[in-house]
């Protein structure tokens, strides 16, 4: 038998294969019902949520007793269309071979397991309906990202994971080293001698590919990253993971306003892809995870995103009757409750809040003429608040240097970052989207641990 | 001016924009020639290798004196087709504005810089012809990978970067930690207390996503990874980097032979994509990096890959008149000189060598009935030798466990890996392709440092 002759259940159910055709199907048993003269087995091969029903007309001739839920089998037979049923193809099985047995007490029995329990067996959970769907959805949405940018002629770049930058303000960094902890080399002054480490200096895991993306945008034009990033923060919440994937486009010759237009276009396109190209998965989420999720997504696709300055947003919040836990005044970082009030109650659609106080934003953001705010933007959506953040970058050498000095940053470490402001500097802008946050938003899944196959969180790096 | 009204030089030169149309173009100056009544400037915006020629009819009216090579400018004007010239569109410039100046002694002058020198200024080298091409090529080939697998309904999976596995046999591992080196916690027995580290155990950077890919393949069917992997090996060669991107497909219900068919199909499709969809880049490589490279690639696309067992390959080598540096006998790991003799001299086409001695291959490979060899395959191509390696995996619980015990591996650490052999185990196979090796092969670039934007090698993690 040839790999290429084997048929996937997805193709069978999508009617890509003729009726009565002889086929070979392989998959894992989901259910089995045996009576005297007929037996039914449903199998799944991971290609789709749906199972293929096998009809066995001579149960005695097959090793049905040994086939438990979870076992893998190989089946020869032919397809038979059944009119008037939702899933209108079944397979008349002629030969059944057990490939891999499963014990009668296989851990994934036919019942609802809690997501908490399934996290403990992350090596098996992709065999459940929910996590099969989540994995296929993640794959499709990854492709959506690449397709969007490829068609817009953005260059996909791979920024380094191991970095010697100190990632001012972006969060705690994991150290990367090959030093022997039992025998750490010391300098004459008694300090750890990083000269003897693998890279001859202190290195860590990247918290963002943005700075490197800026270097490449100011050579290639439009670029984007899509890769893993890291935070060594000891926060055990449902929205934080220590390792997650980020999408970071960076555009040369692009100001804040132009970037906001792109941001809106990007979100709408991804959401459209989900609704149109991941129909099965969105059906599932809408039915089992969060009813109404699809309508919410469709509403966003059809909205014109609002645009409002931070200062205006603060005024709206101050003038509202709403009782906020965190008091509102100009200068604060917007809390989730503020963001959600703005997008859900006041505007009732996605909005972009821009021109934030410079004190609460990163050093590389472009200072506005008021000297108080920077050209930063957060895109807020109903149900969650901020989903994407971005900014126009400070492209003026003197302004950037001054700001870095104000913040006592080590200019030498950033020489290359300053350099590109010296040689044909250009206005440029970019934004960052946490891929898992996107998946959670589209699916309604509530815990980031359930949209990554093997999540890394404080105290947990299993599998 | 709107970002979306700005025209990319690529679109202009590909005739996507009408003649005489008013356009705005922004880019970096590559050359400038000024005479009394006319001036010419060539600019590049990173969208293509080619420059756009600007014709300035009243040189006195523009700030030409201040425009040095490397400066960024914004130009308004209209397009004008010029018959009978290779590049038949030029732009009559009406307004020129300097966006970012460059000093007269800008480091990237119009001359050939050595690749060694350009590595020192990796933050600027993407502005050269060669590295612009390399970056765009890398982006296109990345897309080729995703497109190939998406169309074949493989699921793209993100396997973890931080891992607690010990990656038996795959190479040295970088440690990942948040422990304070100046104050390492110790257990009562005086050992480093990893319980107090971030993940409560020793963790490192992944050397391969394969083991996790196996978990997901045995749930989802066909999957692939495409992400960064790491080796903490102190090898300063032109072919090794400490951080590189790997492509690792893993297929359930797939044996060695079927996998070889997929491998051949995969390589041919990627190579075809390069020749057809990255024409500009392949032209450049063929002209400036390695004449004949394109023909070599085309030959491979048209070849039927040979298949030969390791044992047969050893016989061929033993019977040849060739004088090898490393002596040939059954049991040795094939050296580059052996591989190249086989593919270049003997077969004169790509070949797959399979069924290697188990002692020189990894623990997870499926043992053949001869008990001496495993179902491993290396694909060898002219000019380099091995380009892809893969294997059918040991899916039999007892066989795998015995092999791991023979090798004194810590079974407890691999409980999850053994588990999937207990519950509906299936034959499955996969291979791994180093993405940079692929790029080097297609382009003819000789140093891995020149196909990664910001390479990480021993002693070097700058940018």
Automatic annotation (TrEMBL), chains A, B:
Pfam families recorded: tRNA-synt_2, tRNA_anti-codon
Gene3D superfamilies for the chain: Bira Bifunctional Protein, Domain 2, Nucleic acid-binding proteins
Coiled coil: 390-417
Source organism of this protein record: Halanaerobium congolense
Swiss-Prot/TrEMBL keywords: Aminoacyl-tRNA synthetase, ATP-binding, Coiled coil, Cytoplasm, Ligase, Nucleotide-binding, Protein biosynthesis
Alphabetized NCBIfam families for the sequence: asnS, PRK03932.1
GO molecular function: asparagine-tRNA ligase activity; ATP binding; catalytic activity, acting on a protein; nucleic acid binding; transferase activity
GO cellular component, one term: cytoplasm
CDD domains, per database record: AsxRS_core, EcAsnRS_like_N
Name this protein carries in UniProt: Asparagine--tRNA ligase
Catalyses which reaction(s): tRNA(Asn) + L-asparagine + ATP = L-asparaginyl-tRNA(Asn) + AMP + diphosphate + H(+)
Keyword Nucleotide-binding included in the entry's annotation: yes
Residue intervals of the Aminoacyl-transfer RNA synthetases class-II family profile domain: 136-458
Enzyme Commission number: 6.1.1.22
Entry similarity comment: Belongs to the class-II aminoacyl-tRNA synthetase family.
Main localization, broad class: cytoplasm
Compartment(s) where it occurs, according to its Swiss-Prot or TrEMBL record: Cytoplasm
Subunit note: Homodimer.
A Gene Ontology biological process term: asparaginyl-tRNA aminoacylation
